[in-house]
Amino acid sequence: MSKEKYPYQRIFERDKFKCRYCGVNGSKDFSTWWYANFSIDHIVPKKHGGDDRDENLALSCHTCNLYKGGSKCDSFEEAKEIVLKKRAEAESWFNKHVKQS
Ligand SMILES: [Zn+2]
Q1: Parent domain of 13
Q2: Ligand 1 centroid – CA 73 distance (Å)
Q3: CA dihedral for 79, 80, 82, 86, sign (positive or negative)
């Protein structure tokens, strides 16, 4: 791998390598980092008028980013609420259909 930093290294550092939505800490160990598969989320999606300013960017794990998708939201708090609601739904589905007792 190259020694180049991430294009949005400043956002990774500002957010301390943690998902702003679920809080998973990517700096804990490589396995966590690997599965978190972080990306930069536009809090207000570009298609809804969001821009590339740092205030509109949040470090997000792959799963949270996927669940948030292009959901329309106007603030980080609203975005987080959307993600955590979907996470709670997924968790109850998991407990019902996947979890082994
Ligand atoms: Zn997350």
Answers
A1: 9-97
A2: 17
A3: positive
